[in-house]
């Protein structure tokens, strides 16, 4: 993997991105910062869908758990790094809870469970509004940084590290086994692989990065609210980003997420129509370029 | 008093849920499509009815008619612009078609919702009741319209039952849900069957959307919620089982109404969600589903 | 492997699916370096036995001992780790990885702590690839390989686990004659390495050159065991494959020559993915003729009929049909339009509407008839199959296999076909029922001008009715002639 052209291309891109604060306004940097966190959401989703073959319609269940666990602890005066860890941990527990039905259910049933999980989380947050801030949201005691450049670099660094780990994992021996079990569970088991164990691991890893990203994002924003980290619409955006960028490539979804957030911002003058336009573009990509915008480029050596 | 109130309100809401879910499950049973634009289509019908009835002053009846027509048109648009292109695409591998149809209809639903919001805002809209006045039953005053809605729902479901069980086209539809290959061998073009089912689906979603608008009012922001509740009811009852969907609609309707009246309206959907998770874990085929 | 204790020892293995007995009290042993053929026609339960051994399906009773350890009821991955490998007939390789990576996958330990396959594993993957003849395509993707190489890759994956017991499902399906030989050589290699090999196939013929012993199954039970030659001579096996034990009226000879061809199939080739299912098959059916295509399960009969009915695309050749006094090509027409045009198929799988009644099934088939015709046709069919009238209001799925077959045939006849295609109507049915169906066919050909194309494995059933017989083997037509000459010219090598 280190010898591949893609790897060097990615290095160049990251270096260029890291230099962006020299030119861009702090407003644009802020948009990109959000984009990078979304990039991690999408990459984590892709590990589950593209490799383990599990369609999770509620990625925000995991990000939301991470964000709120971290936020609630922070409100109790716990240090920020510990909160981040706790957020990731809460998401992993949630991820394993999701893995249980995933191992028993197929197709639409599992998809529904993931959707319901999001709705339940949303209801819980609203019911316990006294602690969680309900619809209004939860204000953090700490934030990552007050400097836009620093925040930008933290997010970029986080996405880069997550990307390297998730991409490396997808190309590793484990990635092979995961793909095999996602594609044909019986055949993978006949090769001696314990599907349950590997799928649990995939859920755990995906949840870890989703939760950590969710926690970091709320510490960047300074608030956690349903509309930002839990709402189904946010989950839909994560999925759209992955499909737009090219599922099963890990890096594609990150690119798709950044593009999607940028597009949403660029289309802001359109007001309410902006969501319409973004959805329409995503639909067109699905219909005419099912491999995603970058699917062809990022597929290992292209399909012959 | 409260009991009677719950019984009446629950009945009407459940009938409406049932009507919405029946179309959804029929679609899945016959063509294998889970249409996540369901709520979007209902909202288009509802808002069309509101516009024609109110803005153009055409009255509730013409408005309702326009709403149903809008349901049919949107249903066909969903099929021809989104579902069929994905089903026929060579670039999408067969095993991924289901996920693509889900994602495609989801996006299409968002587009419908946003288009409605753009032209008519996402403020709640209520269509004037089809029938004015109040009926007193068991000491409870209920708008007569609520009874009418329950009646229309059951009438529509009854007509659907007659269509499926008593007409030639209906029989073919039923056969397609049991064994599409067998139907092909008997000389039936499945493509026509699919057209028929999308038409029926459009009528059902249209009627449900219009009635919803006259009952609780509607807003484009509700589209996702409507899809989710139809999906939940259908899974609860058993995918593809019409009677299961009706049973589930009543369970959900009464559970929500009871929670709203007896506990708190803010958590009205919570018990349903928990029930749904339990059923999916313990009996994934749903209450009346077969596997 | 020092002594000759069996590596695989199956005893008392049983499995029911609802009311269906898929396997009853199955027992056999395979010694190191021995190849056992597990044979049986479609639905005989051989696949179930394979799944039971592999743990994909849990047995209701019985033992599966792998090198002495009872693994019955274990999860599949542990059975695999215990030393059972399988070569699936339809496998789904990793399409985005190379051939080498696919083989490497099989060499990986079941652990998520080892992130990279080591040098040793890589070398071993290369060595295995070379041993099965894949060295020249290591860097290619499975999607670009010819079918035989895909099968080689599956063999390589099985070898990579170094299994004590190897199960191979239909080892030669889809391969050309030349490829069959090189595969047989690879499988003999397993024997030389002292592995126990179980070949699962439809019939003795395809595996006879390779196996040491054969275990034959039918309707979930053992019917014969012994060497290939012994099993082929076994009366029960002959009855299952060739039919027998029933009386059928031989058709009075009818001059078949000079008839107008109703259906003409020329040089038809069909590929399933990359597997060759039909290889330049030609067939002619004259108007009013009764033509039988005989061949063992897996020979390609169903594929041929599916291609005629438009259900399966074909890569080469043509199919033409007499319609409205002219010869028209069938290519490009939908299956439904072909059916409405008069070619009605009664498929092997019957494709009934299980939740609908007998009458509803029949009424659906009558929907394309002119008004009034349906009632007449229904009366005639009830006369032909009185049992169906008695069961008019029963749902199809609650009827016995024989009754379902009658309904399937009646439903096809309801459409007033000009050509009726019957695919394996006797499959899995008791002789009494087969006799009833045979009598119905007799009435049909004596009282109506119908043209019939029958596909059968059961020669005793297929021959008496036929004006002309084709023999299909391994995707090719190898013989054509009148039924009277079949025994002398083609009967010998049939089983």
UniProtKB/TrEMBL annotation, chain A:
It comes from the Bacteria. The keyword Transferase does not apply. The keyword Protease does not apply. CDD domains: TM_PBP1_LivM_like. GO terms for cellular component: plasma membrane. InterPro entries: ABC_transp_permease (IPR001851), LivM-like (IPR043428). It is a multi-pass membrane protein. PANTHER family: HIGH-AFFINITY BRANCHED-CHAIN AMINO ACID TRANSPORT SYSTEM PERMEASE, HIGH-AFFINITY BRANCHED-CHAIN AMINO ACID TRANSPORT SYSTEM PERMEASE PROTEIN LIVM. This is Branched-chain amino acid ABC transporter permease. It comes from Teichococcus wenyumeiae.
TrEMBL record, chain B:
The chain crosses the membrane at residues 6-26, 33-53, 59-83, 99-120, 147-164, 193-216, 228-252, 259-282. It is found in: Cell membrane. One of its GO terms (molecular function) is transmembrane transporter activity. Its main location: membrane. Pfam families: BPD_transp_2. Belongs to the binding-protein-dependent transport system permease family. LivHM subfamily. This is Branched-chain amino acid ABC transporter permease. One of its GO terms (cellular component) is plasma membrane. GO terms for biological process: amino acid transport. Keywords: Amino-acid transport, Cell membrane, Membrane, Transmembrane, Transmembrane helix, Transport. It is a multi-pass membrane protein.
UniProtKB/TrEMBL annotation, chain C:
GO terms for biological process: L-amino acid transport. Residues 8-244, 263-495 form the ABC transporter domain. Keywords: Amino-acid transport, ATP-binding, Nucleotide-binding, Transport. One of its GO terms (molecular function) is ATP hydrolysis activity. Pfam families: ABC_tran, BCA_ABC_TP_C. InterPro entries: AAA+_ATPase, ABC_transporter-like_ATP-bd, ABC_transporter-like_CS, BCA_ABC_TP_C, BCAA_Transport_ATP-bd_LivF, P-loop_NTPase. CDD domains: ABC_Mj1267_LivG_branched (cd03219), ABC_TM1139_LivF_branched (cd03224). Belongs to the ABC transporter superfamily. PANTHER family: HIGH-AFFINITY BRANCHED-CHAIN AMINO ACID TRANSPORT ATP-BINDING PROTEIN LIVF (PTHR43820:SF4). This is ATP-binding cassette domain-containing protein. It comes from Teichococcus wenyumeiae.
């Amino acid at each position: 993997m280190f010898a591949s052209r893609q790897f060097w291309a990615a290095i160049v891109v990251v270096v260029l991105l890291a230099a962006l604060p020299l030119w861009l306004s702090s407003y644009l940097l802020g948009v990109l910062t959000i984009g990078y966190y979304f990039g991690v959401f999408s990459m984590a989703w892709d590990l589950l869908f593209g490799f383990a073959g599990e369609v999770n319609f509620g990625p925000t269940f995991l990000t939301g758990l991470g964000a709120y666990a971290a936020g609630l602890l922070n409100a109790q005066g716990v240090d920020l790094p510990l909160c981040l860890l706790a957020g990731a941990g809460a998401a992993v527990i949630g991820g394993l809870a999701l893995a249980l039905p995933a191992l028993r259910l197929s197709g639409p049933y599992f998809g529904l469970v993931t959707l319901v999980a999001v709705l339940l989380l949303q209801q819980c947050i609203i019911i316990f509004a006294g602690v969680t801030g309900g619809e209004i949201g939860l204000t953090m005691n700490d934030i990552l940084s007050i400097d836009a450049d620093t925040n930008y670099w933290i997010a970029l660094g986080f996405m880069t590290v997550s990307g390297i780990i998730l991409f490396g994992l997808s190309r590793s021996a484990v990635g092979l086994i995961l793909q095999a079990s996602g594609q044909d569970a019986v055949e993978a088991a006949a090769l001696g692989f314990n599907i349950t164990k590997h799928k649990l691991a995939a859920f755990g890893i995906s949840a870890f990065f989703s939760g950590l990203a969710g926690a970091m994002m709320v510490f960047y924003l300074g608030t956690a609210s349903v509309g930002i980290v839990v709402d189904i619409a946010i989950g839909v955006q994560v999925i759209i980003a992955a499909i737009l960028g090219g599922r099963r490539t890990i890096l594609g979804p990150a690119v798709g997420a950044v593009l999607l957030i940028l597009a949403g911002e660029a289309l802001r003058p359109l007001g309410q129509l902006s969501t319409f336009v973004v959805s329409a573009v995503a639909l067109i990509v699905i219909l005419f370029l099912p491999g995603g915008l970058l699917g062809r480029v990022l597929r290992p050596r292209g399909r012959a | 008093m409260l009991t009677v109130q719950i019984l009446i309100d629950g009945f009407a809401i459940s009938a409406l849920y049932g009507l919405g879910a029946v179309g959804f499950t029929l679609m899945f049973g016959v063509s294998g499509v889970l249409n996540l634009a369901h709520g979007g289509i209902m909202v288009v019908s509802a808002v069309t009815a509101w516009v024609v009835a109110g803005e153009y002053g055409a009255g509730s009846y013409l408005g309702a008619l326009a709403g149903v027509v809008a349901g049919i048109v949107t249903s066909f648009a969903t099929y021809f612009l989104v579902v069929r292109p994905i089903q026929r695409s060579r670039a999408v591998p067969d095993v991924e078609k289901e996920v693509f149809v889900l994602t495609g209809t989801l996006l299409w639903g968002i587009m419908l919702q946003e288009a409605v919001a753009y032209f008519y805002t996402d403020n709640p809209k209520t269509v004037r009741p089809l029938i004015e006045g109040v009926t007193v039953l068991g000491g409870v005053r209920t708008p007569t319209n609520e009874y009418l809605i329950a009646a229309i729902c059951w009438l529509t479901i009854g007509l659907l039952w007659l269509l499926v069980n008593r007409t030639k086209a209906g029989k073919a539809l039923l056969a397609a849900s049991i064994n599409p290959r067998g139907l092909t061998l008997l000389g039936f073009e499945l493509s026509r069957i699919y057209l028929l089912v999308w038409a029926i689906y459009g009528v059902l979603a249209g009627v449900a959307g219009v009635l919803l608008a006259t009952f609780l009012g509607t807003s484009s922001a509700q589209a996702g919620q409507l899809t989710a509740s139809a999906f939940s009811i259908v899974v609860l009852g058993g995918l593809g089982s019409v009677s299961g969907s009706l049973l589930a609609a009543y369970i959900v309707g009464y559970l929500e109404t009871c929670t709203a009246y007896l506990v708190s309206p803010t958590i009205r959907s919570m018990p349903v969600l928990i029930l749904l998770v339990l059923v999916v874990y313990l009996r994934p085929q749903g209450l009346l589903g077969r596997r | 492997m020092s002594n000759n204790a069996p590596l695989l020892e199956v005893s008392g293995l049983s499995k029911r699916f609802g009311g269906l007995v898929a396997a009853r009290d199955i027992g056999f042993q395979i010694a190191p370096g021995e190849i056992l053929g597990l044979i049986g026609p479609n639905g005989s339960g051989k696949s179930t036995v394979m799944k039971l051994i592999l743990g994909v399906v849990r047995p209701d009773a019985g033992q599966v001992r792998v090198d002495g350890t009872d693994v019955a009821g274990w999860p599949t991955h542990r059975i695999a780790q215990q030393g059972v490998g399988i070569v699936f007939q339809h496998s789904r390789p990793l399409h985005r990885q190379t051939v080498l990576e696919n083989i490497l996958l099989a060499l990986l330990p079941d652990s998520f702590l080892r992130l990279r396959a080591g040098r040793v594993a890589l070398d071993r993957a290369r060595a295995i690839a070379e041993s099965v003849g894949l060295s020249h395509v290591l860097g290619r993707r499975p999607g670009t390989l010819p079918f035989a190489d895909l099968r080689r890759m599956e063999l390589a994956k099985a070898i990579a686990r170094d299994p004590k017991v190897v199960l191979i499902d239909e080892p030669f399906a889809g391969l050309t004659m030349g490829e069959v030989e090189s595969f047989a050589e690879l499988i003999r290699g397993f024997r030389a390495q002292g592995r126990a090999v179980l070949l699962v196939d439809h019939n003795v013929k395809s595996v006879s050159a390779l196996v040491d012993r054969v275990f034959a199954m039918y309707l979930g039970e053992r019917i014969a065991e012994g060497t290939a030659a012994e099993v082929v001579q076994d009366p029960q096996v002959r009855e299952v494959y060739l039919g027998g034990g029933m009386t059928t009226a031989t058709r009075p000879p009818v001059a078949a020559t000079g008839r107008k061809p109703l259906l003409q199939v020329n040089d038809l080739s069909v590929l399933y993915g990359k597997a060759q299912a039909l290889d330049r098959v030609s067939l002619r059916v004259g108007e009013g003729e009764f033509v039988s295509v005989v061949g063992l399960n897996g020979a390609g009969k169903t594929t041929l009929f599916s291609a005629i009915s438009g259900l399966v695309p074909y890569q080469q050749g043509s199919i033409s049909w007499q319609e409205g006094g002219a010869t028209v090509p069938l290519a490009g027409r939908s299956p439904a339009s072909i059916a409405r045009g008069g070619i009605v198929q009664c498929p092997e799988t019957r494709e009934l509407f299980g939740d609908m009644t007998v009458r509803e099934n029949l009424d659906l088939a009558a929907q394309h008839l002119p008004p009034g015709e349906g009632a007449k046709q229904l009366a005639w069919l009830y006369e032909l199959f009185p049992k169906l009238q008695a069961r008019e209001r029963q749902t199809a799925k609650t009827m016995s296999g024989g009754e379902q077959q009658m309904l399937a045939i009646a439903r096809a006849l309801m459409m007033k076909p000009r050509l009726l295609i019957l695919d394996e109507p006797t499959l899995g049915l008791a002789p009494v029922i087969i006799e009833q169906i045979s009598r119905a066919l007799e009435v049909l050909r004596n009282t109506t001008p119908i043209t019939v194309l029958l596909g059968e494995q059961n020669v005793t059933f297929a021959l008496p009715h036929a004006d002309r017989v084709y023999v299909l083997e391994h995707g090719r037509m190898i013989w054509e002639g009148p039924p009277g000459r079949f025994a002398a010219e083609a009967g010998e090598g049939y089983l």
